[in-house]
Amino acid sequence: MRDRFRAGDPSALGEAYDEHARVLYHYAYRVCGDRTAAEDVVSAAFLEAWRCRGRVHADGGSLRPWLLGIATNIMRGAAREARRRDAALARLPERGVLPDFADDVLARMADGEQVRAARAALGRLRRREREVFTLVVWAGLDYAAAGEALGVPVGTVRSRLSRARERLRKLAEAELRAAGAVRGRRGALVRKAGGRGALVRKAGRRRRDGPDGFRGS
Amino acid sequence: MTASISRPPQADADELLRSELAELLPAPPVPELTEDRDRHLRYAVLRTALEDAEERPVRVTRPRQGVRIGWIAAPVIACAVVAGVVVAAPQETPSGSPGRAAVGRSASPDAVRVLSGAALAAAAAPAPDAGAGGYVYVRSLVAYAGRGADGGPGVLPPAHRREVWLPVDGGRPGMLREPGVADTWLGAELPVYEIDHRGAAPRKTTVATAPPSVTNPTHAYVAALPTDPDVLLRLVEDGTRAGGGDADQRAFTAIGTLLAETWAPPKVTAALYEAAARIPGVTVLPSATDAAGREGVAVARTAHGEQTQWIFDRTTSAFLGERTVLTETTSAGRAGTVLGVSAVLVKAAAAAPGEVPEG
Protein backbone atom coordinates (compact mmCIF):
# COMPACT_ATOMS: atom_id res chain seq x y z
CA MET A 1 0.00 0.00 0.00
CA ARG A 2 2.74 2.43 1.01
CA ASP A 3 4.74 1.42 -2.05
CA ARG A 4 1.81 1.84 -4.36
CA PHE A 5 0.94 5.23 -2.88
CA ARG A 6 4.53 6.26 -3.31
CA ALA A 7 4.62 5.06 -6.87
CA GLY A 8 1.56 7.11 -7.71
CA ASP A 9 -0.90 4.24 -8.13
CA PRO A 10 -4.30 5.98 -8.23
CA SER A 11 -6.04 3.10 -6.49
CA ALA A 12 -3.71 3.59 -3.52
CA LEU A 13 -4.98 7.16 -3.16
CA GLY A 14 -8.54 5.89 -3.13
CA GLU A 15 -7.67 3.28 -0.53
CA ALA A 16 -5.88 5.84 1.61
CA TYR A 17 -8.95 8.05 1.41
CA ASP A 18 -11.28 5.23 2.40
CA GLU A 19 -9.06 4.22 5.27
CA HIS A 20 -8.24 7.63 6.74
CA ALA A 21 -10.66 10.30 5.52
CA ARG A 22 -13.12 9.94 8.39
CA VAL A 23 -10.43 10.09 11.03
CA LEU A 24 -8.96 13.20 9.42
CA TYR A 25 -12.43 14.70 9.17
CA HIS A 26 -13.24 14.16 12.84
CA TYR A 27 -9.86 15.50 13.83
CA ALA A 28 -10.21 18.62 11.68
CA TYR A 29 -13.81 19.18 12.74
CA ARG A 30 -12.88 19.12 16.40
CA VAL A 31 -10.01 21.49 15.87
CA CYS A 32 -11.76 23.89 13.46
CA GLY A 33 -15.25 23.52 14.87
CA ASP A 34 -16.71 23.81 11.42
CA ARG A 35 -17.85 21.26 8.87
CA THR A 36 -16.82 23.15 5.78
CA ALA A 37 -13.38 23.95 7.13
CA ALA A 38 -12.98 20.30 8.11
CA GLU A 39 -13.83 19.16 4.60
CA ASP A 40 -11.34 21.63 3.18
CA VAL A 41 -8.63 20.35 5.50
CA VAL A 42 -9.35 16.75 4.52
CA SER A 43 -9.09 17.38 0.81
CA ALA A 44 -6.08 19.66 1.20
CA ALA A 45 -4.33 17.01 3.29
CA PHE A 46 -4.89 14.27 0.73
CA LEU A 47 -3.84 16.46 -2.15
CA GLU A 48 -0.75 17.60 -0.30
CA ALA A 49 0.07 13.99 0.60
CA TRP A 50 -0.35 12.98 -3.01
CA ARG A 51 1.83 15.83 -4.17
CA CYS A 52 4.57 14.80 -1.74
CA ARG A 53 4.05 11.07 -2.17
CA GLY A 54 7.69 10.70 -3.25
CA ARG A 55 8.65 11.48 0.32
CA VAL A 56 6.81 8.53 1.74
CA HIS A 57 9.46 6.04 2.71
CA ALA A 58 9.12 2.63 1.14
CA ASP A 59 8.64 0.70 4.33
CA GLY A 60 6.82 1.83 7.37
CA GLY A 61 3.45 1.50 8.95
CA SER A 62 0.18 3.21 8.35
CA LEU A 63 0.05 6.52 6.50
CA ARG A 64 -2.22 7.89 9.19
CA PRO A 65 0.32 9.72 11.37
CA TRP A 66 1.82 11.31 8.30
CA LEU A 67 -1.60 12.40 7.04
CA LEU A 68 -2.59 13.79 10.42
CA GLY A 69 0.70 15.70 10.53
CA ILE A 70 -0.04 17.23 7.15
CA ALA A 71 -3.54 18.16 8.31
CA THR A 72 -2.06 19.76 11.42
CA ASN A 73 0.29 21.81 9.31
CA ILE A 74 -2.52 22.91 7.05
CA MET A 75 -4.60 24.05 9.98
CA ARG A 76 -1.60 25.84 11.41
CA GLY A 77 -0.89 27.61 8.13
CA ALA A 78 -4.53 28.48 7.76
CA ALA A 79 -4.25 31.43 10.13
CA ARG A 80 -3.87 33.79 7.22
CA GLU A 81 -6.92 32.43 5.53
CA ALA A 82 -8.76 32.58 8.82
CA ARG A 83 -9.11 36.26 8.15
CA ARG A 84 -11.47 35.41 5.34
CA ARG A 85 -13.00 32.58 7.26
CA ASP A 86 -13.91 34.85 10.14
CA ALA A 87 -15.82 36.93 7.68
CA ALA A 88 -17.39 33.80 6.29
CA LEU A 89 -18.65 32.73 9.71
CA ALA A 90 -21.52 35.09 9.34
CA ARG A 91 -22.67 32.95 6.44
CA LEU A 92 -22.79 29.70 8.38
CA PRO A 93 -26.49 29.01 8.16
CA GLU A 94 -26.39 29.10 4.38
CA ARG A 95 -23.90 26.31 4.40
CA GLY A 96 -26.16 23.56 3.40
CA VAL A 97 -28.05 23.11 6.64
CA LEU A 98 -31.17 21.65 5.20
CA PRO A 99 -34.46 21.55 7.06
CA ASP A 100 -34.46 18.47 9.16
CA PHE A 101 -36.36 16.67 11.87
CA ALA A 102 -36.57 18.99 14.82
CA ASP A 103 -34.95 16.72 17.38
CA ASP A 104 -32.11 16.03 15.02
CA VAL A 105 -31.53 19.76 14.73
CA LEU A 106 -31.62 20.04 18.51
CA ALA A 107 -29.13 17.23 18.83
CA ARG A 108 -26.91 18.96 16.34
CA MET A 109 -27.10 22.20 18.27
CA ALA A 110 -26.11 20.40 21.45
CA ASP A 111 -23.20 18.88 19.58
CA GLY A 112 -22.21 22.29 18.32
CA GLU A 113 -22.25 23.65 21.83
CA GLN A 114 -19.97 20.91 23.05
CA VAL A 115 -17.55 21.40 20.20
CA ARG A 116 -17.50 25.10 21.00
CA ALA A 117 -16.93 24.54 24.70
CA ALA A 118 -14.19 22.01 24.02
CA ARG A 119 -12.49 24.35 21.58
CA ALA A 120 -12.66 27.18 24.10
CA ALA A 121 -10.88 25.02 26.64
CA LEU A 122 -8.44 23.90 23.98
CA GLY A 123 -7.70 27.51 23.21
CA ARG A 124 -6.20 27.87 26.68
CA LEU A 125 -3.37 25.53 25.73
CA ARG A 126 -0.28 26.64 23.87
CA ARG A 127 -0.25 25.64 20.25
CA ARG A 128 2.37 22.91 20.70
CA GLU A 129 0.51 21.37 23.60
CA ARG A 130 -2.75 21.69 21.76
CA GLU A 131 -1.47 19.88 18.68
CA VAL A 132 -0.06 16.99 20.67
CA PHE A 133 -3.21 16.87 22.76
CA THR A 134 -5.61 16.72 19.83
CA LEU A 135 -3.54 14.10 18.01
CA VAL A 136 -3.18 11.79 21.00
CA VAL A 137 -6.42 12.32 22.91
CA TRP A 138 -8.88 13.30 20.21
CA ALA A 139 -7.47 11.55 17.15
CA GLY A 140 -6.22 8.52 19.07
CA LEU A 141 -2.61 8.37 17.89
CA ASP A 142 -0.12 6.71 20.20
CA TYR A 143 2.84 8.75 21.42
CA ALA A 144 5.26 7.50 18.79
CA ALA A 145 2.80 8.16 15.99
CA ALA A 146 2.06 11.64 17.33
CA GLY A 147 5.78 12.31 17.42
CA GLU A 148 6.01 11.14 13.85
CA ALA A 149 3.14 13.38 12.82
CA LEU A 150 4.61 16.47 14.44
CA GLY A 151 8.27 15.76 13.91
CA VAL A 152 9.17 15.68 17.58
CA PRO A 153 10.71 12.95 19.74
CA VAL A 154 8.44 10.83 21.92
CA GLY A 155 9.84 12.46 25.04
CA THR A 156 8.62 15.81 23.79
CA VAL A 157 5.16 14.39 23.18
CA ARG A 158 5.16 13.20 26.78
CA SER A 159 6.31 16.50 28.25
CA ARG A 160 3.84 18.54 26.21
CA LEU A 161 1.03 16.27 27.27
CA SER A 162 1.87 16.62 30.92
CA ARG A 163 2.02 20.39 30.55
CA ALA A 164 -1.39 20.21 28.92
CA ARG A 165 -2.60 18.17 31.89
CA GLU A 166 -1.36 20.76 34.37
CA ARG A 167 -3.06 23.54 32.50
CA LEU A 168 -6.33 21.67 32.06
CA ARG A 169 -6.38 20.67 35.72
CA LYS A 170 -6.03 24.29 36.76
CA LEU A 171 -8.75 25.24 34.35
CA ALA A 172 -11.01 22.52 35.69
CA GLU A 173 -10.41 23.62 39.27
CA ALA A 174 -11.24 27.19 38.36
CA GLU A 175 -14.39 25.96 36.68
CA LEU A 176 -15.41 24.00 39.74
CA ARG A 177 -14.97 27.06 41.90
CA ALA A 178 -16.95 29.19 39.49
CA ALA A 179 -19.69 26.58 39.27
CA GLY A 180 -19.86 26.50 43.08
CA ALA A 181 -20.26 30.26 43.17
CA VAL A 182 -22.97 30.45 40.59
CA ARG A 183 -24.97 27.32 41.14
CA GLY A 184 -27.21 26.11 38.44
CA ARG A 185 -26.09 28.67 35.98
CA ARG A 186 -27.45 27.76 32.58
CA GLY A 187 -25.68 28.11 29.30
CA ALA A 188 -22.21 28.21 30.81
CA LEU A 189 -19.61 27.81 28.14
CA VAL A 190 -17.73 25.17 30.06
CA ARG A 191 -19.55 22.85 32.35
CA LYS A 192 -18.32 20.54 34.99
CA ALA A 193 -19.24 16.94 34.90
CA GLY A 194 -19.42 14.55 37.75
CA GLY A 195 -16.34 12.82 39.00
CA ARG A 196 -13.07 14.49 38.32
CA GLY A 197 -14.25 17.73 36.88
CA ALA A 198 -14.14 17.30 33.17
CA LEU A 199 -14.13 20.59 31.35
CA VAL A 200 -16.97 19.68 29.11
CA ARG A 201 -20.17 17.99 30.07
CA LYS A 202 -20.06 14.44 28.95
CA ALA A 203 -23.21 13.49 27.14
CA GLY A 204 -24.33 9.92 27.08
CA ARG A 205 -24.03 9.83 23.35
CA ARG A 206 -20.47 11.09 23.30
CA ARG A 207 -19.04 7.72 22.39
CA ARG A 208 -21.08 7.60 19.24
CA ASP A 209 -18.12 8.68 17.24
CA GLY A 210 -15.61 9.34 19.98
CA PRO A 211 -11.86 9.18 19.58
CA ASP A 212 -10.92 7.16 16.58
CA GLY A 213 -8.86 4.52 18.26
CA PHE A 214 -5.61 3.95 16.52
CA ARG A 215 -2.26 2.65 17.46
CA GLY A 216 0.44 3.63 15.02
CA SER A 217 2.74 0.87 14.03
CA MET B 1 -1.34 -5.40 21.85
CA THR B 2 -0.45 -9.07 21.89
CA ALA B 3 2.49 -8.64 24.23
CA SER B 4 0.51 -6.69 26.78
CA ILE B 5 1.32 -9.08 29.62
CA SER B 6 4.75 -7.54 30.17
CA ARG B 7 4.08 -3.93 29.37
CA PRO B 8 6.83 -1.64 30.51
CA PRO B 9 5.90 0.86 33.21
CA GLN B 10 6.42 3.73 30.78
CA ALA B 11 3.57 2.47 28.60
CA ASP B 12 1.31 2.36 31.64
CA ALA B 13 2.25 5.90 32.60
CA ASP B 14 1.59 7.01 29.03
CA GLU B 15 -1.80 5.36 29.01
CA LEU B 16 -2.66 6.88 32.38
CA LEU B 17 -1.76 10.36 31.19
CA ARG B 18 -3.81 9.86 28.07
CA SER B 19 -6.89 8.68 29.92
CA GLU B 20 -6.62 11.48 32.43
CA LEU B 21 -6.46 14.00 29.62
CA ALA B 22 -9.38 12.31 27.91
CA GLU B 23 -11.36 12.75 31.09
CA LEU B 24 -10.39 16.39 31.51
CA LEU B 25 -11.27 17.34 27.97
CA PRO B 26 -12.95 14.52 26.07
CA ALA B 27 -13.20 14.61 22.32
CA PRO B 28 -16.41 16.49 21.59
CA PRO B 29 -18.88 14.61 19.45
CA VAL B 30 -18.90 15.81 15.89
CA PRO B 31 -21.40 14.96 13.19
CA GLU B 32 -20.40 12.21 10.80
CA LEU B 33 -19.36 13.04 7.31
CA THR B 34 -22.60 12.26 5.53
CA GLU B 35 -22.46 9.69 2.76
CA ASP B 36 -23.28 12.36 0.29
CA ARG B 37 -20.53 14.72 1.36
CA ASP B 38 -18.12 11.81 1.65
CA ARG B 39 -18.77 10.76 -1.92
CA HIS B 40 -18.42 14.30 -3.12
CA LEU B 41 -15.19 14.85 -1.21
CA ARG B 42 -13.67 11.56 -2.32
CA TYR B 43 -14.50 12.31 -5.90
CA ALA B 44 -13.08 15.83 -5.67
CA VAL B 45 -9.85 14.60 -4.10
CA LEU B 46 -9.30 11.82 -6.62
CA ARG B 47 -10.27 13.90 -9.61
CA THR B 48 -8.07 16.84 -8.66
CA ALA B 49 -5.11 14.66 -7.77
CA LEU B 50 -5.27 12.44 -10.81
CA GLU B 51 -6.25 15.06 -13.33
CA ASP B 52 -3.31 17.04 -12.23
CA ALA B 53 -0.93 14.13 -12.65
CA GLU B 54 -2.08 13.63 -16.21
CA GLU B 55 -2.03 17.20 -17.35
CA ARG B 56 1.00 18.54 -15.59
CA PRO B 57 3.45 15.78 -14.86
CA VAL B 58 6.08 18.22 -13.64
CA ARG B 59 4.33 21.09 -11.94
CA VAL B 60 1.89 19.54 -9.55
CA THR B 61 0.93 22.62 -7.62
CA ARG B 62 -2.62 23.32 -8.67
CA PRO B 63 -4.55 21.19 -6.23
CA ARG B 64 -3.01 22.78 -3.21
CA GLN B 65 -3.72 26.24 -4.50
CA GLY B 66 -7.20 25.30 -5.38
CA VAL B 67 -7.89 23.99 -1.96
CA ARG B 68 -6.42 27.00 -0.27
CA ILE B 69 -8.89 29.09 -2.13
CA GLY B 70 -11.64 26.72 -1.26
CA TRP B 71 -10.82 27.59 2.30
CA ILE B 72 -11.18 31.29 1.67
CA ALA B 73 -14.18 31.40 -0.52
CA ALA B 74 -17.45 29.76 0.28
CA PRO B 75 -17.45 26.10 -0.66
CA VAL B 76 -18.86 24.83 -3.91
CA ILE B 77 -22.00 23.40 -2.45
CA ALA B 78 -22.87 26.42 -0.37
CA CYS B 79 -22.49 28.73 -3.30
CA ALA B 80 -24.50 26.52 -5.56
CA VAL B 81 -27.32 26.67 -3.05
CA VAL B 82 -27.08 30.39 -2.56
CA ALA B 83 -26.76 31.14 -6.24
CA GLY B 84 -30.08 29.47 -6.85
CA VAL B 85 -31.83 31.88 -4.55
CA VAL B 86 -29.94 35.11 -4.76
CA VAL B 87 -30.25 37.58 -7.54
CA ALA B 88 -27.11 39.64 -7.37
CA ALA B 89 -26.21 42.93 -8.98
CA PRO B 90 -27.91 43.56 -12.29
CA GLN B 91 -24.57 43.60 -14.09
CA GLU B 92 -23.92 40.10 -12.94
CA THR B 93 -23.30 37.62 -15.68
CA PRO B 94 -23.78 33.95 -15.06
CA SER B 95 -20.51 32.64 -13.73
CA GLY B 96 -18.43 30.55 -16.04
CA SER B 97 -20.50 31.24 -19.11
CA PRO B 98 -18.28 30.32 -22.03
CA GLY B 99 -17.15 32.86 -24.58
CA ARG B 100 -17.72 35.70 -22.19
CA ALA B 101 -14.07 36.60 -22.00
CA ALA B 102 -13.80 38.21 -25.41
CA VAL B 103 -16.81 40.49 -25.43
CA GLY B 104 -18.05 43.27 -23.25
CA ARG B 105 -15.72 42.62 -20.35
CA SER B 106 -15.67 45.65 -18.20
CA ALA B 107 -16.74 47.33 -15.04
CA SER B 108 -19.20 50.23 -15.10
CA PRO B 109 -17.81 53.44 -16.68
CA ASP B 110 -17.72 55.12 -13.26
CA ALA B 111 -15.81 52.23 -11.77
CA VAL B 112 -13.38 52.25 -14.68
CA ARG B 113 -12.79 55.95 -14.02
CA VAL B 114 -12.10 55.45 -10.31
CA LEU B 115 -9.86 52.45 -10.95
CA SER B 116 -7.94 54.27 -13.70
CA GLY B 117 -7.36 57.14 -11.30
CA ALA B 118 -6.12 54.69 -8.71
CA ALA B 119 -3.87 53.07 -11.30
CA LEU B 120 -2.36 56.42 -12.28
CA ALA B 121 -1.75 57.33 -8.65
CA ALA B 122 -0.27 53.92 -7.92
CA ALA B 123 2.12 54.17 -10.86
CA ALA B 124 3.59 57.33 -9.34
CA ALA B 125 3.80 55.96 -5.80
CA PRO B 126 7.16 55.03 -4.26
CA ALA B 127 8.38 51.52 -4.97
CA PRO B 128 8.68 49.03 -2.13
CA ASP B 129 12.20 48.94 -0.73
CA ALA B 130 12.18 45.46 0.74
CA GLY B 131 15.35 43.64 -0.28
CA ALA B 132 16.18 39.97 -0.64
CA GLY B 133 16.06 38.18 2.68
CA GLY B 134 13.81 40.87 4.13
CA TYR B 135 10.12 41.17 4.81
CA VAL B 136 7.26 43.39 3.78
CA TYR B 137 5.39 44.64 6.79
CA VAL B 138 1.71 45.58 6.54
CA ARG B 139 -0.26 46.98 9.43
CA SER B 140 -4.02 47.31 9.24
CA LEU B 141 -7.06 47.70 11.38
CA VAL B 142 -9.59 44.94 10.86
CA ALA B 143 -12.92 43.80 12.22
CA TYR B 144 -14.96 40.82 11.13
CA ALA B 145 -18.48 40.06 12.18
CA GLY B 146 -18.93 36.99 14.29
CA ARG B 147 -22.02 35.20 15.40
CA GLY B 148 -22.66 32.55 17.90
CA ALA B 149 -23.10 29.03 16.63
CA ASP B 150 -26.65 29.28 17.94
CA GLY B 151 -27.37 31.71 15.13
CA GLY B 152 -28.51 35.27 15.47
CA PRO B 153 -27.31 38.16 13.38
CA GLY B 154 -23.63 38.84 12.87
CA VAL B 155 -22.10 41.41 15.20
CA LEU B 156 -19.12 43.50 14.21
CA PRO B 157 -16.59 43.78 17.06
CA PRO B 158 -14.39 46.87 17.45
CA ALA B 159 -11.56 46.96 14.93
CA HIS B 160 -8.25 45.53 16.09
CA ARG B 161 -4.70 45.85 14.86
CA ARG B 162 -3.41 43.24 12.45
CA GLU B 163 0.26 43.03 11.48
CA VAL B 164 1.68 40.78 8.81
CA TRP B 165 5.27 40.11 7.80
CA LEU B 166 5.46 38.69 4.31
CA PRO B 167 8.81 37.17 3.30
CA VAL B 168 10.40 38.73 0.23
CA ASP B 169 11.33 35.33 -1.10
CA GLY B 170 9.98 31.88 -0.41
CA GLY B 171 11.41 29.26 1.87
CA ARG B 172 10.89 31.31 5.00
CA PRO B 173 7.64 31.66 6.87
CA GLY B 174 5.80 34.90 7.29
CA MET B 175 4.26 36.04 10.53
CA LEU B 176 0.86 37.24 11.70
CA ARG B 177 0.43 39.27 14.89
CA GLU B 178 -2.87 40.21 16.45
CA PRO B 179 -3.44 41.48 19.98
CA GLY B 180 -4.28 38.85 22.55
CA VAL B 181 -3.13 36.00 20.32
CA ALA B 182 0.30 34.43 20.13
CA ASP B 183 2.25 35.26 16.97
CA THR B 184 1.47 32.83 14.19
CA TRP B 185 3.92 31.64 11.56
CA LEU B 186 2.46 31.70 8.11
CA GLY B 187 3.39 28.93 5.71
CA ALA B 188 6.09 27.37 7.88
CA GLU B 189 7.59 24.11 6.75
CA LEU B 190 6.50 21.17 8.77
CA PRO B 191 9.23 18.79 9.78
CA VAL B 192 8.03 15.24 9.55
CA TYR B 193 9.86 12.35 11.11
CA GLU B 194 9.48 9.13 9.26
CA ILE B 195 9.73 6.07 11.45
CA ASP B 196 10.50 3.08 9.29
CA HIS B 197 9.59 0.45 11.81
CA ARG B 198 9.13 0.14 15.52
CA GLY B 199 12.22 1.23 17.37
CA ALA B 200 13.89 2.72 14.31
CA ALA B 201 15.56 6.10 14.58
CA PRO B 202 13.25 8.74 13.10
CA ARG B 203 14.41 10.27 9.85
CA LYS B 204 13.67 13.94 9.46
CA THR B 205 12.01 15.12 6.28
CA THR B 206 9.85 18.10 5.58
CA VAL B 207 6.60 18.65 3.88
CA ALA B 208 7.27 21.23 1.22
CA THR B 209 5.31 24.42 1.45
CA ALA B 210 3.18 25.31 -1.52
CA PRO B 211 4.94 27.45 -4.08
CA PRO B 212 3.91 31.10 -4.09
CA SER B 213 0.67 31.79 -5.89
CA VAL B 214 -1.91 34.49 -6.32
CA THR B 215 -3.54 33.47 -3.06
CA ASN B 216 -0.34 32.51 -1.25
CA PRO B 217 2.12 35.18 -2.42
CA THR B 218 5.64 36.04 -1.42
CA HIS B 219 6.79 39.58 -2.01
CA ALA B 220 9.06 38.43 -4.85
CA TYR B 221 6.05 36.76 -6.45
CA VAL B 222 3.96 39.92 -6.22
CA ALA B 223 6.83 42.03 -7.50
CA ALA B 224 7.16 39.80 -10.57
CA LEU B 225 3.47 39.77 -11.49
CA PRO B 226 2.77 40.75 -15.10
CA THR B 227 2.07 44.44 -15.68
CA ASP B 228 -0.23 43.79 -18.64
CA PRO B 229 -3.72 43.96 -17.09
CA ASP B 230 -5.16 41.30 -19.41
CA VAL B 231 -2.37 38.85 -18.70
CA LEU B 232 -2.60 39.63 -15.01
CA LEU B 233 -6.35 39.13 -14.89
CA ARG B 234 -6.00 35.78 -16.64
CA LEU B 235 -3.38 34.76 -14.09
CA VAL B 236 -5.65 35.75 -11.22
CA GLU B 237 -8.56 33.87 -12.78
CA ASP B 238 -6.41 30.76 -13.24
CA GLY B 239 -5.20 31.01 -9.68
CA THR B 240 -8.72 31.26 -8.30
CA ARG B 241 -10.39 28.69 -10.50
CA ALA B 242 -11.24 26.40 -7.63
CA GLY B 243 -13.89 27.42 -5.17
CA GLY B 244 -17.54 27.93 -5.63
CA GLY B 245 -19.88 30.54 -6.91
CA ASP B 246 -19.00 33.43 -9.06
CA ALA B 247 -15.61 33.32 -10.81
CA ASP B 248 -15.54 37.09 -11.30
CA GLN B 249 -16.18 37.62 -7.61
CA ARG B 250 -13.33 35.29 -6.74
CA ALA B 251 -10.99 37.27 -9.00
CA PHE B 252 -12.18 40.57 -7.54
CA THR B 253 -11.70 39.33 -3.98
CA ALA B 254 -8.25 37.92 -4.74
CA ILE B 255 -7.12 41.22 -6.21
CA GLY B 256 -8.50 42.99 -3.14
CA THR B 257 -6.44 40.78 -0.87
CA LEU B 258 -3.32 41.48 -2.92
CA LEU B 259 -4.01 45.22 -2.67
CA ALA B 260 -4.64 45.10 1.05
CA GLU B 261 -1.89 42.87 2.31
CA THR B 262 1.00 42.91 -0.13
CA TRP B 263 3.15 45.76 -1.32
CA ALA B 264 3.36 45.53 -5.07
CA PRO B 265 5.62 47.69 -7.23
CA PRO B 266 3.84 50.72 -8.74
CA LYS B 267 3.40 49.17 -12.17
CA VAL B 268 1.95 45.96 -10.76
CA THR B 269 -0.44 47.87 -8.50
CA ALA B 270 -1.56 49.92 -11.49
CA ALA B 271 -2.08 46.70 -13.46
CA LEU B 272 -4.10 45.22 -10.59
CA TYR B 273 -6.47 48.18 -10.73
CA GLU B 274 -6.74 47.97 -14.49
CA ALA B 275 -7.36 44.25 -14.26
CA ALA B 276 -10.15 44.91 -11.75
CA ALA B 277 -11.64 47.44 -14.17
CA ARG B 278 -12.05 44.58 -16.66
CA ILE B 279 -14.16 42.50 -14.28
CA PRO B 280 -17.86 42.71 -15.20
CA GLY B 281 -20.21 43.90 -12.51
CA VAL B 282 -17.85 46.27 -10.74
CA THR B 283 -19.65 49.47 -9.78
CA VAL B 284 -18.99 52.67 -7.86
CA LEU B 285 -20.28 53.77 -4.47
CA PRO B 286 -20.04 57.52 -3.92
CA SER B 287 -19.08 57.16 -0.29
CA ALA B 288 -17.76 54.51 2.08
CA THR B 289 -15.76 54.56 5.31
CA ASP B 290 -12.89 52.27 6.21
CA ALA B 291 -12.07 50.72 9.60
CA ALA B 292 -10.06 53.78 10.60
CA GLY B 293 -13.00 56.07 9.90
CA ARG B 294 -11.51 57.47 6.70
CA GLU B 295 -14.17 58.30 4.17
CA GLY B 296 -13.65 57.89 0.44
CA VAL B 297 -15.08 56.69 -2.82
CA ALA B 298 -15.48 52.95 -3.31
CA VAL B 299 -15.61 50.46 -6.13
CA ALA B 300 -17.70 47.46 -5.30
CA ARG B 301 -18.83 44.13 -6.56
CA THR B 302 -21.84 42.18 -5.36
CA ALA B 303 -22.41 38.45 -5.45
CA HIS B 304 -24.49 36.05 -3.40
CA GLY B 305 -26.04 38.79 -1.32
CA GLU B 306 -22.71 40.27 -0.27
CA GLN B 307 -20.94 43.33 -1.52
CA THR B 308 -17.18 43.74 -1.34
CA GLN B 309 -16.02 47.36 -1.43
CA TRP B 310 -12.57 48.83 -1.95
CA ILE B 311 -12.32 52.31 -0.54
CA PHE B 312 -10.07 54.94 -2.11
CA ASP B 313 -8.98 58.36 -0.95
CA ARG B 314 -10.90 60.93 -2.97
CA THR B 315 -7.95 63.20 -3.69
CA THR B 316 -4.92 60.93 -3.75
CA SER B 317 -6.73 57.82 -5.07
CA ALA B 318 -4.76 55.79 -2.54
CA PHE B 319 -6.23 52.45 -1.44
CA LEU B 320 -7.62 52.93 2.09
CA GLY B 321 -9.27 49.64 2.96
CA GLU B 322 -11.98 47.09 2.30
CA ARG B 323 -15.49 46.54 3.48
CA THR B 324 -17.99 43.68 3.10
CA VAL B 325 -21.68 44.40 3.48
CA LEU B 326 -24.80 42.25 3.27
CA THR B 327 -27.00 43.40 0.41
CA GLU B 328 -29.90 41.21 1.41
CA THR B 329 -31.52 40.41 4.67
CA THR B 330 -30.61 36.89 5.77
CA SER B 331 -30.33 35.18 9.12
CA ALA B 332 -26.84 36.73 9.29
CA GLY B 333 -28.41 40.15 9.51
CA ARG B 334 -30.37 42.82 7.73
CA ALA B 335 -29.29 44.17 4.39
CA GLY B 336 -26.62 46.74 5.11
CA THR B 337 -25.04 44.77 7.96
CA VAL B 338 -21.26 45.17 7.81
CA LEU B 339 -19.60 41.75 7.81
CA GLY B 340 -16.05 42.98 7.70
CA VAL B 341 -14.06 46.17 7.42
CA SER B 342 -10.36 46.96 7.21
CA ALA B 343 -8.02 49.90 6.89
CA VAL B 344 -4.46 49.66 5.61
CA LEU B 345 -2.27 51.85 7.82
CA VAL B 346 1.37 51.09 7.08
CA LYS B 347 3.33 49.28 4.39
CA ALA B 348 7.07 49.19 4.95
CA ALA B 349 10.14 47.03 4.68
CA ALA B 350 11.23 45.07 7.75
CA ALA B 351 14.44 43.17 8.34
CA ALA B 352 12.93 40.33 10.32
CA PRO B 353 9.51 38.92 11.16
CA GLY B 354 8.16 40.50 14.31
CA GLU B 355 10.27 43.61 13.80
CA VAL B 356 8.12 46.72 13.47
CA PRO B 357 9.61 49.28 11.08
CA GLU B 358 10.02 52.77 12.50
CA GLY B 359 7.99 55.72 11.38
UniProtKB/TrEMBL annotation, chain B:
Keywords: Membrane, Transmembrane, Transmembrane helix. The chain crosses the membrane at residues 69-89. InterPro entries: CU044_5270-like. This is CU044_5270 family protein. It comes from Streptomyces viridochromogenes.
